[in-house]
Every structure is written in structure tokens, then in C-alpha cells.
Model the fold of this input.
Amino acid sequence: MNPLFQLCTRSYDEEIPIVKKALEALEKECNVSNGHTIEKPFKKSGWTFFNIQISEELSEIIEKSGMMEGAQGYGIGEQMTNFIGHYLETKGSNVRIKKIDY
Done:
């Protein structure tokens, strides 16, 4: 199963290029192609929500490479959520992230 995360922002048009570029950089770092998909956004209460799905291959490399070292959380799903959120933040994104399915 591929990990699925929901991201939300109040400035989608500004954030989506940052998120795309960050996920492409993560794929390059892990030497994976087609390692993520970004689903169609939807709006609710002034926020724009969109899901990102990480491929099994990319998530396995992240888990086994030690990239998540220091990512806090009670389980691997929470640690992966915190890692992805922090990774996006270091690339300039201000989206909020939550785990939907891992």
C-alpha cells in the first residue's frame, strides 16, 4: 500500500510549485522516478486541501536509508508524516500535513 497524506494551505497557487519541486528533489535524492502523485485539490472554509501519495519504493528507501532519523512519532506512519512535513518545510513550504493512510 502506498502512503497517502493530506496537505492543506490557504495559498495553494503559491504552495503547489514548492511542494512539487520538493517532492521531485526527494525522488532525486532517493534515486526514484515517479515516486509520488499529487491529487486534485478541493476547497473548504478558505483552505485548499490536496492529497499526495508516496510510492512504496520511495517510502521504503526513506525508511531504510536513515533519512527519518530524528523524526518523532509513535509509529512508522507518524514518523513518515513528520519527516515529509519537515522536508517540505525545509524546502520553503508552509503547508500543513496529516496522515490519511499508511
Notes: The mean pLDDT is 89. The chain has one domain: 4-101. The chain has three helices and five strands. The longest helix spans residues 12-30.
